[in-house]
Design a protein that fits this description.
Layout lengths: L1 H16 L14 H10 L16 E12 L8 E15 L15 E5 L8 E3 L2 E4 L7 E5 L3 E13 L11 E10 L7 E5 L3 H6 L10 E14 L5 E13 L2 H20 L9 H20 L12 H27 L10 H14 L11 H8 L6 H47 L2
Helix pairs in contact: 4-5, 4-6, 5-6, 6-9, 7-9, 8-9
Length: 429
């Protein structure tokens, strides 16, 4: 009780010594917060670290809450993530202490930030000033705890790995540290436990392209000159892209065009329609790549795997068209060509048909026509010979067409399975 009375007397004395407070009349009469504000500001030096013993370190507690991820700029390797963060800082100011009983039991009050000492905590990865709202006040409790809660919009540098686009996971860091003060003056700590901070998504707006996985935190002490040490708190914001939009607009159209290319192999090899069909597909895929080129992320240090996928698909379409041209050339105007060499007949019509499980080589799709022609073979021997030549070349062309088609199909399946497996592994790694 004696201590409280002495404190009250000192408070009254200070208020008397402050100009304008002795006759506190008018609209400020009996205004407790005004009296408390004048009491706290009397003789306060905001440029001095608020400790009575200079050897004591000011401990600043930091907390981080992610509200939204607005965008990511892969091309410039910048977390133009315009991310909204709610940054919480707390520290103890030994000069902002009062007895609540002397001020109508006021336990805390707001004070202009410009009037109190604030630690120089910065984010190392800053590359641009975000459009953050100005919060001009901090909260102070009667025992000197200062709470600086503010939302900030940050634009930070981040090394983005776009190889797995659109199934990529990005890990961007935010490093908080005092720009000037050493560890002897300012130290950092987490306001909450690291595990609680990691899983907290309570305020995250989960409607955009990016999904927040977790926020990792790590405290570190480092020295630049082996003399003075500094404290830093690093937060790793791990985000994952939602691939549905890119799957529907990029992958599925490409897959549909490749499926149509496979269907084109069922057109007769001696039909000119197959060539025009595949040329149309190739032109359509070229237009598709021009349209999606602006959608794909591009950097100077790498290309996403999906870009390689599109290039390989284009190459497969070119190979498919080349195979079709060769087969059509092979079976065109057979009556003007010589007989099929025996080695080629043995290799293609006997060995390859067994390997490809093609039924009797004499029961190919031209046999019915050739059987009708053979009825007049006795009268048109020379004509029969040319028909036999045409039959042989058609048989060779048919078998080679089936062989190349199956090789092409196996290559596409192997490529698709490999790509799908890699994306699955990266997505759940």
């Amino acid at each position: 009780m004696v201590t409280m009375r002495v404190s009250a007397l000192w408070t009254a004395l200070v208020l008397l010594l402050i100009p304008g407070t002795a006759n506190n009349t008018g609209r400020f009469a009996n205004a407790t917060l005004v009296r408390l504000s004048e009491y706290l500001s009397a003789g306060y030096k905001k440029g001095v670290r608020p400790v009575r013993n200079w050897r004591n370190c000011t401990m600043v507690a930091i907390d981080l809450m992610v509200y939204s991820i607005l965008s990511v700029d892969e091309k410039n390797q910048v977390l133009t993530t315009y991310i909204w963060y709610s940054l919480y800082q707390e520290w103890t100011d030994e000069f902002l202490v009062w007895n609540p009983e002397d001020f109508d039991d006021v336990n805390q009050m707001s004070i202009p930030t410009a009037n109190v000492w604030v630690p120089d905590i910065l984010i190392n990865e800053f590359v641009d000033v975000g459009k953050s709202p100005d919060i001009p006040y901090v909260y102070v409790t009667h025992y000197g705890l200062v709470r600086n809660y503010k939302p900030i919009q940050v634009v930070t540098a981040c090394t983005l790995n776009i190889y797995n686009f659109p199934f990529d996971v990005q890990n961007c860091s935010l490093t908080f540290q005092s720009w000037l003060h050493t560890l002897n003056d300012i130290d950092l700590k987490l306001m909450r436990s690291a595990e609680e901070l990691k899983v907290d998504k309570s305020v995250f707006m989960n409607q955009g392209e990016w999904e927040l996985l977790h926020v990792l935190s790590k405290y570190k002490r480092f020295s630049l000159d082996n003399i003075d040490s500094y404290a830093e708190m690093k937060f790793n914001v791990v985000i994952r892209r939602r691939p549905l939009f890119y799957t529907v607009n990029l992958l599925l159209p490409s897959i549909f065009l490749m499926v149509m290319d496979l269907v084109g192999f069922y057109l007769p090899p001696d039909s000119g329609e197959r060539v025009s069909f595949k040329i149309t597909l190739l032109l359509g895929y070229s237009v598709f790549l021009i349209i999606v080129s602006d959608t794909l992320p591009a950097t100077a240090i790498g290309t996403p795997l999906i870009g390689v996928y599109f290039v390989v698909c284009m190459a497969l379409l070119v190979i498919s068209l080349t195979e079709t041209v060769l087969i059509v050339r092979l079976v065109h105007k057979q009556d003007l060509q010589p007989h099929v060499p025996q080695w080629l007949k043995h290799l293609v019509l006997e060995r390859a048909t067994v390997l490809l499980c093609i039924r009797n080589k004499h029961s190919l799709f031209m046999d019915n026509i050739l059987q009708e022609i053979s009825s007049i073979r006795g009268f048109l021997e020379k004509r029969d010979e040319s028909r036999d030549i045409a039959k042989e070349w058609l048989q060779v062309g048919y078998v080679l067409d089936v062989l190349l088609f199956r090789v092409y199909l196996v290559a596409m399946l192997a490529y698709s399975i490999t790509l799908g497996t890699l994306w699955s592994v990266w997505q759940y790694a």
